[in-house]
Amino acid sequence: MQKTTQPSSFLKKISFNLLYLVSFIEGGVVMVTELAGARILAPYFGSSLYSWASTLSITLLALMTGYYFGGYATTKKKLSSQKAIFIVFLLSGILVLILPSLGRAVMSETINLSFFTGIIISQLVFLFPPIFLMGMMSPMIIYQINQSTKQAGRSAGNIYAISTFGGILFTLVFGFTIIPNYGITLPVIILGVSVTLLSVLLLLKHRVSIPITILLAVIILSQFRQAYVSYTEFSPALHQTERLVEYSEGLLGEIAITNQKMKSPDGKPFYGRILKVNNVMQNQAVSDYPKASLIYYVNFIRNLVGQLPKKKTALIIGLGAGNIYSDMQLYNIDVETVEIDKRIYDYGVKYFEMEAHPEKSHITDGRYFVNTSNKKYDIIVLDVIVGENVAKQLVTLESFKKIYNMLPENGSLIIEHGGIQDFSKNQFVPSLHKTLKEVGFNISMFNPIQANNNKYGDVLFVATKGKLDKNNIFIAKDILLSEGPITDYEVSLTDFKKIKETPILTDNKNKTDLLLKEHYLNIRENQNR
């Protein structure tokens, strides 16, 4: 008897270990798929809190329904087997494999719907199915491992612990290493292929018929080919006068460098060079001389910085394409920069003629740098409110207190908030102004665009420890700006939306996303027209 039961027990142990392995991978793939869903969404619907809220909601909905139907499947004889688990694993792998191409195909159509409708429908189509199938697997695996009613709780605990551990490990590896270096599309395709191949190997153990094996091989190869072709031939949406120079995926999402045909004020044609992050323009310059910015607030800062009382040292948080850095070099200012995505720094050097400064470039989160730095700077520029890529952690009371202490007497903090469609509907500017005032700054605000009595444009905050001598600062004429005293560009709080209680932005109660909600929607609607 011992000779016959021992091999049986050994094989059962191997079988259970395979199920534990599948559970571990399933947990990891769920988390990577969720990250991918948010990243793939960003170039079409942005990466604001609303996009992440949609991603989390659809993920939880898929897991909830997956858990339910997975439990229901165990009550059906044909579905309560290991073979059924591996088939579900295979189908989820195929859906992960095609996730990037399917997502882009879907969103190219849903982009024409309203913002919230488009997000929800898109993610229901490309994100829900793979996570739903992976959600089914945990109760199906638990059913296979359960040996008795007494062991049910322990079996469920083991499976969910192993699955969660897989999620933790995959999230750390992909979030800190793979996505920043290789983007999201190629790693997701490779992950989908790996899951698919592993599930096929597991199915072969269950003696799948030759015709079905051939059919599976054809489906897998065709889907892999389609996904790979979609990856290699993908190009972001461009204006008809634009030409793609370089495209990459990474920490901030999709970054594109393009050249676009433009005309000068006197009608002469030229090419502009554009930096886009997730399909939203971050900077624009003259292609033949990319140090020459075509962004109003950048040129305005160049004029302003040269006339500030203290300007020996500066810190720029949010590098953009490096034009502000290059302009400060004109005044021999000792500049350090902080940028979270190294590609921004690299593209600034490669395409916008920014001087390389690796020893004074900090590739890290801006708030982390502020919290840990002991240095003082005469000028600090926060260029972190562009599009819907707002570094909310940097515009709070606690952050500004740290920055205030990093400035000497007569030091200046410059903050840019660009692309405002209608000043009278903007609630964020009054809130930011109140937060800066609470810290103790003297605040002046300017609109470099000077558009229709300040109905739209950019807002440049100049927050100083002392009083800004506005009467002795003049703006020189260039391709964008008009000559005159800086006071001609000044705006006041009365130009913006009045609300009963203007909130102070704090780490605990940061209402930036709520205050900028209409701003986010305007950006995406204009960008996707």
Question: Can you describe this structure?
Answer:
- It is built from 17 helices and 15 strands.
- It is of the alpha/beta class and 529 residues long.
- It has two domains: 2-233, Growth Hormone, Chain: A; 293-527, Rossmann fold.
- Strands 5, 6, 7, 8, 9, 10, 11, 12 and 15 form a nine-stranded mixed beta sheet that branches. A four-stranded antiparallel beta sheet has the order 1-2-3-4, sandwiched between helices.
- A hairpin with a 2-residue loop joins strand 3 (269-277) and strand 4.
- Helix 1 crosses helix 7 (152-182) and helix 3 (82-97) runs antiparallel to helix 6.
- The radius of gyration is 27 Å and the shape is elongated.
Topology:
Layout: H1 2-45, H2 49-73, H3 82-97, H4 99-110, H5 115-126, H6 128-145, H7 152-182, H8 185-204, H9 210-233, E1 242-250, E2 253-263, E3 269-277, E4 280-286, H10 296-305, E5 313-317, H11 323-329, E6 334-338, H12 342-351, E7 361-362, H13 366-372, E8 379-386, E9 389-390, H14 397-406, E10 412-420, H15 428-439, E11 442-446, E12 457-464, E13 474-475, E14 484-485, E15 490-491, H16 512-515, H17 517-527
Parallel strand pairs: 5-6, 5-8, 6-7, 8-10
Antiparallel strand pairs: 1-2, 2-3, 3-4, 8-9, 10-12, 11-12, 11-15, 13-14
CATH fold call of the largest domain: Rossmann fold
SS summary, helix count:
17
Uncertain stretches: 1-5
CATH structural class of the largest domain? Alpha Beta
Q: Which sheet architecture does the biggest sheet show?
A: 9 strands, mixed
CATH architecture of the largest domain: 3-Layer(aba) Sandwich
Structural class, by secondary structure, is alpha/beta
Annotation, overall tally of beta strands:
15
Q: Compute the separation of the termini in Å.
A: 75 Å
Average pLDDT confidence is 88
Beta-strand content estimate: 15-25%
Instruction: Give the radius of gyration.
Output: 27 Å
Tally of distinct domains: 2
Helical proportion, percent range: 40-55%
Identify the CATH homologous superfamily of the largest domain.
Vaccinia Virus protein VP39
Give the CA-based shape.
elongated
